[in-house]
TrEMBL record:
Coiled-coil residues: none
Main location group: membrane
PANTHER family named in the record: OS05G0424000 PROTEIN-RELATED
Amino acid transporter transmembrane domain segment(s): 42-473
Pfam families, A to Z: Aa_trans (PF01490)
Family: Belongs to the amino acid/polyamine transporter 2 family. Amino acid/auxin permease (AAAP) (TC 2.A.18.2) subfamily.
Region (Disordered): 20-39
Name of the gene: LOC100835990
GO molecular function, one term: amino acid transmembrane transporter activity
The name this protein goes by in its record: Amino acid transporter transmembrane domain-containing protein
Keywords associated with the record: Amino-acid transport, Cell membrane, Membrane, Symport, Transmembrane, Transmembrane helix, Transport
Lineage: Eukaryota, Viridiplantae, Streptophyta, Embryophyta, Tracheophyta
Native organism: Brachypodium distachyon
Amino acid sequence: MARADLEAGGLAVAALPHRSPHRRISGGGDDAAFDDDGKPKRTGTVWTAGAHIITAVIGSGVLSLPWSTAQLGWVAGPVTLFLFAVITYYTSVLLTDCYRSDNPVTGKRNYTYMEAVESYLGGWQVWFCGLCQYVNLVGTAIGYTITASISAAAVYKSNCFHKNGHSADCGVFTTMYMVVFGVSQIFFSQLPNLHEMAWLSILAAVMSFSYATIGVGLSLAQTISGPTGKTTLGGTVVGVDVVDSSQKVWLTLQALGNIAFAYSYSMVLIEIQDTVKAPPAENKTMRKANLLGVSTTTAFYMLCGCLGYSAFGNAAPGNMLTGFGFYEPFWLIDFANVCIVVHLVGAYQVYCQPIYAAVENWAAARWPRSGFVLREYPVLANGKFSVNMFRLVWRTAFVVVSTVLAISLPFFNDILGLLGALGFWPLTVYFPVEMYIRQSKVERFSRKWLLLQSISVLCFVVSAAATVASIEGITLSLKNYVPFKTKL
C-alpha cells in the first residue's frame, strides 16, 4: 500500500527575531513608522496571517487524505480529522497568548517559538524545542522538493499519455524537476523575511484552494458517474486489501500520524504572529486567523478525505490526482499539478524563513562589524529590495544541500512522516499546554490541569505509535531503494 504523499506540517525555530534588524534610532525619525519594540511597523492582518496559516497547513498531503481515510474507514476517518482539527485550534490559541511574556497585550514580544519557550519554561526545554523544530523544518524543505518534482513530472506524464495513448511508456525521472525547483527556491530565498512574503503566501493559498477543489470535484464526479471502489465502515479489509492484521495495524498508525501531521503549523505560528500589526492586540487577531485557517483546512480535508474515499474505496492511492490515471480530463490534471508546484514554492519559503533567520541572527551577533554579514546592496531604485552577500551565499547553500538530499533520498516521504510524528506532540501540544499552564498559573491536579494533561498524553501516544509505524515504512522502502533512479 502506498504511503501518504506528503503533508505540510513542520516546525520552525529561530533564536532571535526574524524580522529586519533595522531599528529606530532614539530621538529621531517618524515614530509612526515603528512599533513599540523599535522595529519597522508591522502591517499584517487577519487575512495575511490566515493566508500564511493556510499556506503552511494545506500542503500536497491534502491529496493523500483519501488514502488515510481508507485505512480508518467511514467512522474513524472523519472523526479523526475532526478531533485533530479541534486539538490543533485549541493549542494554537493557547500558543498565540504566549507571543508576549507575562501579559498577552503589553508584555515583551517573543519573536520566535524558541523565545517563547525560553521565556516561560527555560532550561533544557529550550534546546529540546529547537531540536524538534529545526529537524522538522529541514525535513519539510526536502520533502517539499520531492513532492513538487512529482507533481511537475505528472504534468509531463499526463500529456504523454494524452498524446501517445494510455499504453505508452511515459515514465520519467524526477531528478531534473527537483533541480528546477531548487533553482527557483534560490531566487525566492533572497526575500529578506516572512514579513515581506504576504503576496507569495496569498498566491500559494489560492493555489492550494485550486488543486484541492479540483481533487474534490473529480472525486465527486467519479462518485456520481462511477466506477467507484469498495468502501467499508472499518476501512481496508484484512485478507482483501491488506495481507494480514499486522499490516492493517501499521497502515492505520501511519494514517493517524499523517492526519496529525497534516494539521501541524504551530512551529511557525509565533513567526507568523510577529507580522501582525497592533492594535488590536496580536493575540486577538491571531485567534481569528487561527479559526480562519483551521476551519478552512478542515473543510477541505473532510471533502478530500471523504469524497476521495468514496471514489476510490479501500484501494485509494497515495495521491488522489494520480488515481484518475493521468488520463482525462488531462488539462485539468495538468492545471492541478501546476497549482501544487506553485503552492509548494510558497510553502517552502514559509517553513525555511525561520531557519534562515536563526543562522543570520547568529552570524550578525558573532561578527557584528563584518560587511560581508551585515551590509545590504540595494537592487531596486526605491530601496525595497537589496542583496546581502552572507544571505546570498548561506541561503543558496542551504537550498543546494536540501535539493541534493531530496535527489538522493526519494523515499523521504516516509522519513518526513517520522519527523512529523516526532514533532507533532512536543510542538503542537506539549509546549503550548505547558506554557499556558505556567502563564495562567493553573493549579496542579485541578480539573483544567487534568484536562490539559490528558490531551497532551493522548497526543503523545498517537505520536509514539505513528513514529513506530513510520520506522516500519522506512525499513520497507529501503529494501527496494536504488540511489538516483527514482522514476514516476
